[in-house]
User: Fold this.
Amino acid sequence: MSSDWGDLRRWPDVEAANLLAWDASDRLILDEAGALVREVGDVVVIGDRHGALTLGALEAGASRVRVHQDGILGERALLANAARRGLGRGESGMPFTHLPLDASLVDGARLVLVQLPRSLDELDEIAQLVAAHGHPDVRVVAGGRVKHMSRSMNDVLLQSFQTVSASLARQKSRVLHAGRPRAGVTVTWPRRQHHDDVGLTLVAHGGVFAGTTVDIGTRLLLDHLSSMRTAERAIDLACGNGVVASALALARPEVQVLATDQSAAAVASARATADANGFSDRVTVSRADGLESELDSSAQLIILNPPFHVGAAVHTGLAERLFADAGRVLEPGGELWAVWNSPLNYRPILDRVIGSTRQVERTSKFTVTSSRKRT
Assistant:
């Protein structure tokens, strides 16, 4: 990749002075892959945040890149950054292809570049896929910031590969090299768990928040399902594993639910959760940037457990975008029920962008609020 990375942007993802489109780990991954990129030609990239790895691999000599990005905003940022560099013009189109995190992504792959996820489960799913479907000589070059890495990552990779070694650290980043897939590795994801207390079976891929569990904040929301307004149509915004959407379908046989998330892992998990509980006819699952595909004033009830991290940084930008979307899509008198980390104090924002907001429950960690769309 060129020495000047200043043209790379996060847009249309959240942008701020402390949020960058790349970091030193992207450079180190490409440097550690070295001449293999050109030799292999067809490179697989997993976890590219905003395009640095994909565009860097192409600059290093890759003829084609198969790429998986969990977030839809990351996909769009890659496309925008590629267009800014003049790629995609003419008959050949973009020299990279977005693919789901499945066998088609890594089939026969000889070189896989990975931006290490913070979730060990997500890394396990990636490692299993590569070991099961990649070339017998496949090489994995996976990097990240040292402060977010642990020895457990080596252990996870060793479950699918016979050799794992670490590079020297550089600019607070490090790379793990994995190779020689173990014989007989199979993909054990997604996984499922039944919860008697909520009457649901949850299904989750490795990269989804909370996995097959019900996180503490969501449990608080579920306690108040009976207090939420009646609705023919409701939305589980930032749906994660889909527990809220399926719980609402279970509690209210008359309701149609849209579960939506920008994460591919979340969407696949929420769809599988709905199917596992027999709600596929009443729970529709969509991958989107918030509520971009929804009409104004079209929903009576929206339920939201917003993310409070942008990458590794605590940042309110994503939550504020989701609140604004909810304000647009709710019909007058409609309700947004939200749970959020109490120290973030979202209530003034909710009052402003939705309408009158009341505190329903508060603990030391989480606050549940109900906001009524102003008429």
